[in-house]
Amino acid sequence: MSCDEFGRHQEAVEAFQQAIRLKPNLAQAHYNLCKAYGNLGRYQEAVDAFIQAIRLKPDFTEAHYSLGLTYLLLDDKGWAMEEYKILKDLNQERANNLFDLILIYQESLKNYQKSLEK
Fold it and tell me: Does 47 share its domain with 66?
């Protein structure tokens, strides 16, 4: 990532934070903030913002899906599975997508652990 790209992502964070200050109940602004945090590798801050977006709009499918992915990035398969369970009631296709990624994550982790044993 170049400095220029980093600058734009940081500017996006600041813009979405400002939007949230003006309209704190706007779930989409919280979701967009999550994505900007994710682009900066600030995954824990992204989780916090995803949770806020979901609190405001509990049936926000893409927020649940992205939160599940972010949990995987944080090496937290348990919470990713919790998002999968929620997604099953919201959007089966997105739930299946997340579940497939959880399985890939598990398999990759097993393969990595086996490679360390050699």
Answer: no
Alpha-carbon distance of 87 to 108, in angstroms, equals 23
**Same domain assignment for residues 72 and 116:** yes
pLDDT tens for the 118 residues of the chain, in order: 333 355 689 999 999 999 999 999 999 999 999 999 999 999 999 999 999 999 999 999 999 999 999 999 999 999 999 999 999 999 999 999 999 999 999 898 888 777 888 7
pTM for this model (two decimals): 0.87
Contact call for residues 88 and 95 (beta carbons, < 8 A): yes
Same domain, 64 and 12: no
Helix axes 92-117, 61-73, angle to 10 degrees: 0
- Tokens found for residue 110: 């097993």
How far, in Å, CA of 66 to CA of 51, rounded?
Answer: 11
Q: Are residues 64 and 118 in the same domain?
A: yes
